[in-house]
What does this fold into?
Amino acid sequence: MTVLVTIDGSDRSWTVLPHAAALGSALGLRLRVARVLNPLLDVGDQFGPSIDRAAETVAARWREDLATRLRDAGIDAEGEVDLIRRRESAEDAIVRLAVDSSASVVAMSSRGAGLLQHAIIGSTAMAVVGKCGRPVLLTGPGVTASPAAGGYRVLVTNDGSRDSDDSVATFARLFAGRPVEATLAGIYSRATGDRSAEEEMGSIRAHLEGMRDQFSVTGPLQTRVFDAQEFESTAGAIVRAAQELEASVIAMATHGHSVVRHLFAGSTALGVLQQSPLPVLMAAV
It folds into this structure.
């Protein structure tokens, strides 16, 4: 079992590596770092007797670069370059690698900068989230270079929906028996027609308490309800809560993998990814 980290060659794509290493250490998993090569797009002006030979020349150069970057970062991981197959998209190649390597988690950088950009240029990262059937660790544009110091702390969000409950079960299985500190968190945002704040927050807390038995982490486990401040979005409240708890990662559900659906339905998960200095561990539901 591994954490599959995918790199696209840009400096930004490497920001996920230290966070993937921290998650891998918490889960007791080795890293496998891969870059996918599209022979039709990535060969460029590399000449050879055939496109296959030219692609292999580029792949050899990329493998050397991967090995150098991993060595310089002090990361003990396998590095590889995989050629995208005929009629295979980049996200499908990543999903194939995840299945072949029995990866428990896929980790990658998200290049989009907001919902509209995700919809216009598409998002390989969000497509992988929707297709791979396992949690995906994503770093957004504001992620810090290094993980938080100390033990591994995970903030698991829950909005009370069945889909969100399913994602909590996914994260509970992932972290089962691991020495992590986990917080099950809900966000209360005032709305017209609500009962009193005390009643609403009490209901959220009761729901979270009912999910405690799913977690078997060996570190501390707590439940918290955070009250969104005036004019604060749910995404903003989640990021604030994670920083208050000095979390290492925010774990949450995302509803579907269509970027257009994310744009029109709105996406708390994408909002968190956009704003968060922490990586976001997403599970598609």
